[in-house]
Design goal:
alpha+beta; 4-stranded mixed beta sheet; 7 helices; 4 strands; 67% helix; globular
């Protein structure tokens, strides 16, 4: 994307390799420019990377508990992505896998909040600011991902609920339509931010575009899966059921 196709392996946890895409450099520059401080900008970008990585590992390890493996986790300009080899097929498994990410983000925010509740002294001003940013970032990360922008976490949770009433393909279509409505609003917000001098407006627009594109891609995949399942069932029925007598 935008000439940033290279990625670099930075670590491996729980048998899952973690990569960083070169587009992450743009995010690093934006933080430095927005903060007006190199040290704070780098620290904030790194804490965001750690928070997003923890968020994605929550998805990956929950999916593993249901028997679905993760190929890798990649950090980029648009956040993080856990590349599951196969998505959970049962609605309740998809719900728990999707919700695990925001739950991890809220847990990190809660852990930082406990430092203040129990009045644990933090004498270093730099560290105090980083902790405040970590709390705020994870709170926003968890809340934002619960919004119904399919295929974001909230969109997947919404689809899993819709699957109680219809099949996977139709539930995906409904989630895609709702997600595209959210993408339009998010794109307008990004445009407004750019017009008012915001540093991250174009990132917001890119996220909106990603939701618009990936939601449709997942709908096509779900429809193909449904068509293949129906074709396989018809083929199976034709093989095991003899034709009517006399034909």
């Amino acid at each position: 994307m935008f000439g940033f196709s290279s990625r670099y392996r930075i670590c491996e946890l729980f048998g899952i390799p973690v990569f960083v895409n070169s587009s992450f450099l743009i995010l690093l520059v934006l933080f430095v420019l927005d903060m007006g401080s190199f040290s704070y900008g780098v620290a904030f970008a790194l804490m965001l990377a750690v928070s997003v990585t923890a968020h994605e590992f929550a998805h990956a390890l929950t999916a593993r508990a249901f028997g679905y493996r993760t190929n890798d986790i990649t950090l980029s300009l648009l956040g993080g992505c856990a590349s599951l080899i196969a998505l959970p097929q049962k609605a309740w498994q998809e719900f728990l896998t999707a919700f695990a990410g925001p739950l991890m983000s809220f847990a990190i925010a809660g852990a930082v909040l406990l430092l203040d509740v129990f009045r644990i002294p933090v004498e270093n001003d730099f560290l105090r600011v980083i902790l405040y940013y970590t709390f705020y970032t994870n709170l926003m990360l968890g809340a934002f991902n619960l919004l119904p922008g399919f295929p974001m976490d909230g969109g997947r949770i919404f689809r899993s609920v819709m699957r109680l009433f219809t099949d996977r393909a139709k539930a995906t279509y409904i989630a895609m339509i709702v997600g595209r409505g959210f993408a339009i609003l998010l794109g307008l917000k990004g445009a407004w931010s750019i017009l008012n001098g915001g540093s991250f407006g174009f990132v917001t627009i890119l996220i909106a575009w990603m939701i618009w594109r990936e939601g449709h891609r997942e709908y096509l995949a779900a429809r193909e899966e449904e068509d293949f399942r129906r074709w396989s069932q018809r083929d199976f029925n034709a093989r095991v059921s003899p034709p009517p007598y006399g034909r």
